User: Which sequence fits this backbone?
């Protein structure tokens, strides 16, 4: 019986997603739990697994952006045709870019390894086919695919190592020669890398079995190291798709639907700087993380929101809803855009715990390990450009919030005391607020409260 494949809704606020790549070709067999597609949303890129088994027939092409819940494919029985829905199935083709898969059922008895989840090993069908033919235990292979998934390129490298070393012993003790997919001179991953580097594969000498071109051959043919996420250059066209496209739409919608206004406010940071210097010495053993300046700002903002609940709110059709929990989002720059991890119940957390969570979440975001749940539910956002030397800017409110606090660089200031200049440490806060929900005076009061808390930072430690 035909089973619908629907675009999953990742998180409460997701409205649409982009199919970055199909991880199996049309007509291939997939087992329940196999990675089916790479989904790009406004917050995170994730692999989506098949919820059932069958022959896969997509109805939208890779690169398409569709609403959450939309029909994107079918899982069919042998000989079954996809139901008529007005959408023509995508023609069968070779494996999708970025994946290495072949029509092949999952191996029975696959063990769980470090790259898998309970009871299941993350591997492509083609990797399992090659492993079965070569008598290789997949738990001995390190995966380089998304989430540690084993692809056939990993099997190729593993078998090449065995053929040049001590060999692999099967159950009978005989050495097993590498067995690789027939009919191709390079893997889909090698072809993808060759396109990205502008290399003609017909001019590359393959050193793999049967002249197969391996990644090492491609590296040798590359004139200079290729950097991932290289800086844009003149003449480039950056498509407004995936994360970049969704950010563009959401920020444009934010400015269209809200009456946004920004206050600038200079705060003294002498006490914070002095306390951080003390903590660096007292917590030198590393048992407690030394909070950064941004961590102090996060804690101060959370406590200030308690006193100024109008900034911890959302505007709906029936009115301004003041929110119970204070869940702070903080912006993290990632290749191609930014993410906003969320520290839940930030006002109730001691400063060392905020520091620990902010570091862990930021690292997970930059490494692509963050989960959709960790990007949901922010009631207010803090964003900093101080590390880039920016003093003042006008941040754009995340839809659903009524405020966002920008943080500038820590710099020297001057205060006059009895006609004598006194060197100080200051930074500028940039509070953008939705004037539909908050007037200028309450917004200024919020900033003043943040400044007062930073002036006595010992209160922020608990």
Assistant:
């Amino acid at each position: 019986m035909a089973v619908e494949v629907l675009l999953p809704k990742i998180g409460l606020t997701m409205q649409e997603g982009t199919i970055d790549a199909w991880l199996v070709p049309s007509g291939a067999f997939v087992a329940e739990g196999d990675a089916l597609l790479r989904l790009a949303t406004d917050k995170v890129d994730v692999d989506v697994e098949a919820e059932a088994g069958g022959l896969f027939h997509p109805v939208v092409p890779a690169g398409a952006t569709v609403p959450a819940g939309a029909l994107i494919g079918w899982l069919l029985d042998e000989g079954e045709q996809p139901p008529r829905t007005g959408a023509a199935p995508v023609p069968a083709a070779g494996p999708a870019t970025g994946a290495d898969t072949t029509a092949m059922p999952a191996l029975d008895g696959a063990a769980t390894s470090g790259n898998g989840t309970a009871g299941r090993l993350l591997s492509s069908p083609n990797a399992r086919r090659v492993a079965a033919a070569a008598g290789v235990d997949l738990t001995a292979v390190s995966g380089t695919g998304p989430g540690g998934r084993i692809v056939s390129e990993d099997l190729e490298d593993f078998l090449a190592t065995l053929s040049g070393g001590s060999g692999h012993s099967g159950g009978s003790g005989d050495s097993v020669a590498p067995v690789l997919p027939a009919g191709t001179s390079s893997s889909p991953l090698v072809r993808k890398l060759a396109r990205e580097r502008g290399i003609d594969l017909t001019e590359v000498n393959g050193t793999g079995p049967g002249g197969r071109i391996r990644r090492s051959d491609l590296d040798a043919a590359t004139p200079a190291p290729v950097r991932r996420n290289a800086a844009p250059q003149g003449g480039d066209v950056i498509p407004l798709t995936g994360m970049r496209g969704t950010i563009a739409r959401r920020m444009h919608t934010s400015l269209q639907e809200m009456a946004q206004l920004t206050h600038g406010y200079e705060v003294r940071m002498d006490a914070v700087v002095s306390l951080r210097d003390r903590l660096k010495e007292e917590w030198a053993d590393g048992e407690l993380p030394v909070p950064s300046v941004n961590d102090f700002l996060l804690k101060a903002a959370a406590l200030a929101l308690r006193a100024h609940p109008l900034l911890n709110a959302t505007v709906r059709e029936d009115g301004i809803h003041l929110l119970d929990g204070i869940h702070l989002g903080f912006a993290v720059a990632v290749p191609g855009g930014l993410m906003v991890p969320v520290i839940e119940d930030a006002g109730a957390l001691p400063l060392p715990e905020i520091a620990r969570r902010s570091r862990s979440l930021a690292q997970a975001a930059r490494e692509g390990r963050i989960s959709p749940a960790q990007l949901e539910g922010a009631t207010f956002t803090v964003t900093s450009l101080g590390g880039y030397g920016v003093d003042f800017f006008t941040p754009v409110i995340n839809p659903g919030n009524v405020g966002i606090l920008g943080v500038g660089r820590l710099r020297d200031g001057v205060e006059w005391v009895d006609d004598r200049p006194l060197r100080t440490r200051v930074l500028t806060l940039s509070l953008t607020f939705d004037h539909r929900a908050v007037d200028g005076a309450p917004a200024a009061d919020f900033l003043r409260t943040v400044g007062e808390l930073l002036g006595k930072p010992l209160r922020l430690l608990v």
